[in-house]
Amino acid sequence: MPAHDLRLWQHAHDFGTEAQRSAERRTRWVVSLTFLTMLVELAAGWLTGSMALMADAWHMASHVGALGLAAFAYRFSRQHAGDSRFTFGTGKVTALAGYTSALLLVAVAFWMVWESARRLFQPVPIHYAEAMVVATLGLAVNLASAWLLDHDHDHHHHDDDDDHHDHHHEHVDHNLRAAYLHVLADALTSVLAIVALGGGLLYGWSFLDPLMGLVGAALVSRWAWGLARDSAAVLLDAEDHGRTAAEVRRLIEALPDHEVADLHLWRVGPASRACILSLVTHTPFTAEHYRRLLAGVEGLDHLTVEINECRDERCQVEGGQCASGRVQ
Fold first, then answer.
1. Predicted local distance difference test score (pLDDT) of residue 12
2. Inter-CA distances, 258 with 168, 263, 279, 297, 311, Å
């Protein structure tokens, strides 16, 4: 039997995209910016004795950790893309990081609820002028970070309603979304703090500070739930691939005497899917013919085709098997 160069039929399992590499670079910039701001606030808090500055600095440190996790996930995914231990590549590493970040966001929300409730019943003196400076600085840094993470993407516009998943979540990078939500949570905290501090400074409404904390916790919890739900669906291969599945079936069953017997689709990267297709026909083509036919399906980057040749004239697909039971 003549030797064949198997490399002609083999392919890499690196499903990373240029968008991911861009996201990795921008995430590193945001980590650096947030870390430097944290150091400035720590130094200023130490020199001035301001607990407001110190508290905000340590709060920002938690987001440095979360954003650092996002940057690490991109790096790990890229460096291990060719590792054979990852059967379908490292595309789900970023989804795992997104899910972990969702849990961290939940922890942040719980902390906000606890601290706000405590301050409702045990009010503490607030140094409005210092706190306003801190909140304004934090807002500026977070707006800059949000622009870095999202200046050429629209992922944060994706609706979290169930009936929008199939279309709006086609190419969501859950790791980038998680980093963006951490920045957004910090920006929201700063905005609510400015509103509360303004009310306290002008009208003496000290209750606004903990009240805005509870409002912020509710919004952060909602974002965390959406992120956890969507990233968990990727990790568990529980996404709805209805549009892609319908397109695959349409193309295959448009061929004369062809039926799709079984079809499996799952995510292997933010913009990549794997597919196992089982079809039944009396007149099979080569596997390469079906690959060329489905080459134009968006996001279908890893295709395995199983061809079942039916020998019976009455052969029709019923529940994935020929009615006659004779499939070769």
1. 53
2. 31, 14, 7, 18, 13
CA dist., res. 238 & res. 232, Å (int):
8
What are the tens digits of pLDDT across the range 87-108?
Answer: 777 888 888 888 998 898 898 8
Q: Which residue has the tokens 């210092």?
A: 130
Residues 88/274, Cβ–Cβ less than 8 Å: yes
φ/ψ region of 124 (left if φ > 0, alpha if ψ in -120 to 50, else beta) reads: beta
Give the residue ranges of DSSP H helices in the chain: 18-48, 51-79, 93-121, 128-150, 165-168, 174-203, 208-235, 242-253, 287-293
Mean pLDDT of 170-180: 77
- Token readout for 46 is 């130490």
HEC profile of 174-217: HHHHHHHHHHHHHHHHHHHHHHHHHHHHHHCCCCHHHHHHHHHH
Is the pLDDT reported for residue 321 higher than 50? no
| Those residues with Cβ within 8 angstroms of residue 280's Cβ, 6 or more apart along the chain or in another chain | 258, 259, 261, 308, 310, 315, 317, 322, 327
CA 26, distance to chain mean position in Å, is 15
* Contact criterion met (CB below 8 Å) for 326 and 311: yes
How far is the C-alpha of 58 from the C-alpha of 77, rounded, in Å?
29
pTM: 0.70
Cβ count within 10 A of residue 323: 13
Rounded Cα distance between 293 and 126, Å, is: 67
Within its chain, how far is the Cα of 205 from the centroid? 39
Give dist(CA 328, CA 275) in Å, integer.
Answer: 22
Q: What is the mean pLDDT of the chain?
A: 78
Among 70-74, 144-148, 249-253, the range with the most confident prediction by mean pLDDT is: 249-253
| Distance from C-alpha of 259 to C-alpha of 254, rounded to nearest angstrom | 9
pLDDT of 307: 93
Residue 105 · residue 182 · CB < 8 Å:
yes
